């Protein structure tokens, strides 16, 4: 039987449930997968979309494809790290609804990191996952 990732949001920490993430994710022993950062690159080599929402959608789709390859889903993500260029509250406000739609109600621990640049100059967002694999 699979051990789900347990989510904790102690009252001694800020309430993160309102924004859709957990302060702590507890993972029972089992197999783990570490998914490299997924960006807005198409598998068939089509050009990278220009806008942040479209880039977030494609990065999430690529993260979803990685999860599917593992036989996992958003509920199995222990921690998600989101790297974003020019991180501002406004840009975060544009990106988070797309990320929340991808998570489909799962609320992994999330870390948002503002960066000067990513692997290619056109990239604005990258999503890295640590996943507890289902049994």
TrEMBL record:
GO terms for molecular function: deaminase activity. GO terms for cellular component: cytosol. CDD domains: YjgF_YER057c_UK114_family. Pfam families: Ribonuc_L-PSP. Gene3D superfamilies: RutC-like. Belongs to the RutC family. This is RutC family protein YjgH. It comes from Tritonibacter horizontis. The gene is yjgH.
